[in-house]
Amino acid sequence: MKVLLVNGSPHKTGCTYTALEEVANSLNKNGIETEMFWLGVEPMAGCIGCNACLKTEKCFRNDLVNDFLEKVPTTDGFVFGTPVHFASSSGALTSFMDRVFYGRRSLFENKPACTITSCRRGGSTSTFDQINKYFSMNNMPIVTSQYWNQVHGTNPEEVKKDLEGMQTMRTLGNNMAWLLKCIDIAKKSGLEYPKNEDIVKTNFIH
Ligand SMILES: Cc1cc2nc3c(=O)[nH]c(=O)nc-3n(C[C@H](O)[C@H](O)[C@H](O)COP(=O)(O)O)c2cc1C
């Protein structure tokens, strides 16, 4: 079983990475394979709503979004990490999430996911809510921990001193591993995923 951990920070090995690494170590201890996926520092384009991807299943812009989408079918769970930028996720992660999740329920549904946030002082809970919405709109079980999935700091050394934050990351890894194993056992015992109705869309105009 494999979990992809997305680092939405411009700092490859900064605070967000430090928190993600703690989750990854905890997953590894539970026998789960992990892979880090860094968004880098190049500009991340936002979704232009052209709907081309609904036919091709890829974004017309061939960048990290398509690299990530190729990995999804062989991935069992996801951790999305972001620094807090003005009480929201980084601009790069917001653009990435919009393009990754647009029209892709069938690719992601039933796969567990969670958010982790890294901030100096405040705005982490609104960021946490923002990113969790991508999962709640796509039939994805959201993995929780013992408290808010957040760490505090302006550099990795400070983050490591946030003992509660780091413990929260380890608990999150344990909980993700446990849920993945539960799903695996359920699949092997023949339990089917929910059969959902065709989606009804009403736009509040009639
Ligand atoms: C553009 C920008 C906006 C930020 N806004 C906030 C904020 O609203 N609240 C906060 O506590 N920290 C804020 N910070 C600080 C970072 O969230 C914090 O230092 C974080 O841990 C850095 O993680 P990183 O090393 O992975 O990038 C901001 C930093 C930047 C660059």
> What is the CATH topology?
Rossmann fold
Reading the helices and strands in chain order gives EHEHHEHHEHEHH
Structure class: alpha/beta
DSSP, total strands:
5
Lay out the secondary structure.
Blueprint: E1 2-7, H1 15-29, E2 33-38, H2 52-56, H3 64-71, E3 77-83, H4 91-101, H5 105-108, E4 113-119, H6 124-136, E5 150-152, H7 156-161, H8 163-188
Parallel strand pairs: 1-2, 1-3, 3-4, 4-5
Flavin mononucleotide binds next to helix 1 and strand 4.
Describe the protein's architecture and organization.
- The chain is of the alpha/beta class and 206 residues long.
- It has a single domain, classed as Flavodoxin domain (Rossmann fold, 3-Layer(aba) Sandwich), CATH 3.40.50.
- 43% of the residues lie in helices and 14% in strands.
- The protein has a five-stranded parallel β-sheet, sandwiched between helices.
- It binds flavin mononucleotide (FMN).
Give a short overview.
This protein is of the alpha/beta class. It is 43% helix and 14% strand.
Structural key phrases:
single chain; 5-stranded parallel sheet; binds flavin mononucleotide; alpha/beta; globular; 43% helix; Rossmann fold
